[in-house]
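#onboarding

Welcome to the new folks! Below is a worked example of what a typical request in this channel looks like: someone posts a single protein sequence, and someone else replies with the predicted structure as tokens. Don't worry about understanding the tokens yet, we'll cover that in week two.

Example request:
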Amino acid sequence: MASINVSIRMDAELREQAEQVFSQLGMTLNGTINLFLWQCTPICSGQE
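Example response:
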């Protein structure tokens, strides 16, 4: 699967706090966003 770069704007403090939370879970912010999108997209989650 090909990957692309996506830019989003978010509050700097929110990003820092989220990275700390996900780091404690052994995850990255990027990986967490990808996981969220996989779960929300019917084609990717097999719910088509």
